[in-house]
Amino acid sequence: MLYLCCMEAIWYGNKMKVGVLGGGQLGRMLIQEATNLNIHLHMMDGDAAAPCAQLAHSFTYGSITDYDAVYAFGKDKDLITVEIENVSIEALEDLEKEGVKVFPQPRVLRIIRDKGLQKEFYTDQNIPTAPFAIIENRVDLLAKASFPIVHKLRTGGYDGKGVNILKSEADALTSFDEPSIIENKIPFQKELSVIVARNENGEMTTFPCVECEFNPEANLVEFLFSPADIDSNVEQQADEIAKDIIQKLDMVGLLAVEFFLTNDGSLLVNEIAPRPHNSGHHTIEICHTSQFAQHLRAILNLPLGDTSLIQCGSMINLVGEKGFEGPAIYEGLKDILSIPGVYPHIYGKEITKSFRKMGHVTITGSNMDEVREKTKKVQAAIRVIA
To answer: Which domain holds residue 41?
Structure first.
């Protein structure tokens, strides 16, 4: 907790009980930054072997979607945050009423975790986004679809799961038969992301815009590059939209805003995430403040950090090689460690599966040509097999 005494700010971070719902790789990297400020993080996850299980100050095994489990976990905490949106919002709402601080706020999580409510928020607030329709089931899908479209589950999707590209009625017949949304498939030049932070005082900062390249089969980010190769006007517009969204949500915490840069040069918001995000992992090495440190600063109402670049960089997601399942083997790790400016992050997941996120690698350099050349070498050298 932050106390003021004799005109000096005195930090007692370890006296404040901070709970985190979710114990995956985002929580693992959050712990690493919390250690620097002597903040004790208490994690909860439904996987007893979660990446945070052996690293957290305390670890609670339990379902983060179960009301009773989340309420019991949170009632002795000063503050609760999340590393995933799919949690018991009802429990968080009751904890908030009883005086526990919850950031991002439960009302914000309720909007963002439901892609239908999220899209309605954009249209209500005049935030540019792709045209969409909310559908209830496959019959509704077939009645409203005009192919090609993007089909997304309203809740529960993650890491590329819960999103299908439908090119025909035949594709629709094998897609989700659940509440979902359909969007026009937008022709675009690039996919971009901006991460914005906001604390209780209303202070805001954005990280430099990044350019993302996706693996079409896994529907996951394969690479990202920072800074993005875009016009300064586009960068400014993306910053302004990200700040506008977090202000209109009146949200405290970290918000990742994903954009399409369309062929006519306009920006459309694709999705948002109210937490540290895959498109911000590179900030650990290439920005003065990482996204994980910034998340902690925001939720604890500390001064936000300097987000400017130290150097150019890229990130490669390390995902399980297709067709492999079993104890993870990181083939080529020794080879990439011999390349200057390459920083692997292994998430501690013992079992690999096809396209499962197992780690990431940040590549740094003095210019983007150097970064792209080293990125190719790293991509060719390393893979996760069993």
So the answer is: 2-102
